[in-house]
Amino acid sequence: MTHAVQPQKTQQHGLLSLLNSDGKAHPLENTLAAATLVLGLIAVISASFTHLHLLSSWAGLFGIATGAWGQFISVTTGERFVLIIGLGASALGFFLGMAHGGLFGGVLG
Fold first, then answer.
1. Would you say the pTM of this structure is higher than 0.85?
2. Transmembrane region positions (predicted)?
3. Is the dihedral of CA 46, 49, 50, 52 positive or negative?
Protein backbone atom coordinates (compact mmCIF):
# COMPACT_ATOMS: atom_id res chain seq x y z
CA MET A 1 0.00 0.00 0.00
CA THR A 2 1.39 3.39 -0.93
CA HIS A 3 1.47 6.30 1.46
CA ALA A 4 1.47 9.99 0.74
CA VAL A 5 4.78 11.71 1.24
CA GLN A 6 4.64 14.11 4.16
CA PRO A 7 6.89 17.17 4.12
CA GLN A 8 9.42 17.09 6.92
CA LYS A 9 9.29 19.78 9.55
CA THR A 10 12.58 21.52 10.03
CA GLN A 11 13.57 21.98 13.63
CA GLN A 12 14.66 25.47 14.54
CA HIS A 13 17.16 25.99 17.31
CA GLY A 14 18.11 28.98 19.36
CA LEU A 15 16.23 32.24 19.69
CA LEU A 16 14.04 31.67 16.65
CA SER A 17 12.59 28.53 18.19
CA LEU A 18 11.41 30.65 21.13
CA LEU A 19 9.89 33.31 18.89
CA ASN A 20 8.37 30.88 16.37
CA SER A 21 6.76 28.51 18.85
CA ASP A 22 4.10 27.50 16.31
CA GLY A 23 6.75 26.01 13.98
CA LYS A 24 6.22 28.57 11.21
CA ALA A 25 8.56 31.37 10.18
CA HIS A 26 7.46 34.94 10.92
CA PRO A 27 10.23 37.16 9.51
CA LEU A 28 8.37 40.48 9.74
CA GLU A 29 7.15 39.90 13.27
CA ASN A 30 10.58 38.69 14.42
CA THR A 31 12.25 41.71 12.83
CA LEU A 32 9.87 44.10 14.57
CA ALA A 33 10.47 42.34 17.90
CA ALA A 34 14.25 42.54 17.49
CA ALA A 35 14.14 46.18 16.35
CA THR A 36 11.94 47.13 19.29
CA LEU A 37 14.29 45.42 21.72
CA VAL A 38 17.38 47.09 20.21
CA LEU A 39 15.73 50.53 20.14
CA GLY A 40 14.60 50.06 23.74
CA LEU A 41 18.12 49.18 24.85
CA ILE A 42 19.54 52.18 23.02
CA ALA A 43 16.91 54.46 24.57
CA VAL A 44 17.44 53.21 28.13
CA ILE A 45 21.23 53.20 27.98
CA SER A 46 21.45 56.65 26.39
CA ALA A 47 18.89 58.02 28.89
CA SER A 48 21.46 57.53 31.66
CA PHE A 49 23.43 60.39 30.15
CA THR A 50 21.52 63.68 30.24
CA HIS A 51 23.38 65.15 27.25
CA LEU A 52 22.13 62.28 25.03
CA HIS A 53 18.47 63.24 25.41
CA LEU A 54 17.99 63.55 21.65
CA LEU A 55 19.13 59.98 21.06
CA SER A 56 17.14 58.53 23.94
CA SER A 57 13.91 60.36 23.12
CA TRP A 58 13.99 59.59 19.38
CA ALA A 59 15.07 55.96 19.87
CA GLY A 60 12.34 55.58 22.49
CA LEU A 61 9.72 57.10 20.20
CA PHE A 62 10.66 54.81 17.30
CA GLY A 63 10.80 51.86 19.68
CA ILE A 64 7.29 52.61 20.91
CA ALA A 65 6.03 52.85 17.32
CA THR A 66 7.66 49.61 16.15
CA GLY A 67 6.60 47.82 19.33
CA ALA A 68 2.99 48.93 18.97
CA TRP A 69 2.87 47.75 15.36
CA GLY A 70 4.58 44.51 16.32
CA GLN A 71 1.99 43.88 19.05
CA PHE A 72 -0.74 44.50 16.53
CA ILE A 73 0.51 41.85 14.09
CA SER A 74 2.32 39.43 16.44
CA VAL A 75 1.43 35.75 16.22
CA THR A 76 3.17 33.91 19.05
CA THR A 77 3.61 34.46 22.76
CA GLY A 78 7.40 34.58 22.41
CA GLU A 79 7.16 37.52 20.02
CA ARG A 80 4.80 39.32 22.37
CA PHE A 81 7.13 38.75 25.31
CA VAL A 82 10.10 40.29 23.50
CA LEU A 83 7.91 43.14 22.27
CA ILE A 84 6.68 43.99 25.77
CA ILE A 85 10.24 44.06 27.15
CA GLY A 86 11.30 46.32 24.27
CA LEU A 87 8.23 48.52 24.63
CA GLY A 88 8.87 49.02 28.34
CA ALA A 89 12.50 49.91 27.75
CA SER A 90 11.57 52.23 24.87
CA ALA A 91 8.94 54.02 26.93
CA LEU A 92 11.30 54.45 29.88
CA GLY A 93 14.05 55.82 27.62
CA PHE A 94 11.55 58.07 25.84
CA PHE A 95 10.17 59.54 29.06
CA LEU A 96 13.63 60.11 30.55
CA GLY A 97 14.81 61.67 27.30
CA MET A 98 11.80 63.98 27.33
CA ALA A 99 12.56 64.93 30.93
CA HIS A 100 16.17 65.76 30.04
CA GLY A 101 15.38 68.02 27.11
CA GLY A 102 12.98 66.36 24.71
CA LEU A 103 12.97 65.64 21.02
CA PHE A 104 14.24 69.06 19.92
CA GLY A 105 15.69 70.47 23.16
CA GLY A 106 18.44 72.95 22.38
CA VAL A 107 18.34 72.34 18.63
CA LEU A 108 15.60 74.72 17.54
CA GLY A 109 16.16 77.56 19.86
1. no
2. 31-49, 55-74, 81-103
3. negative
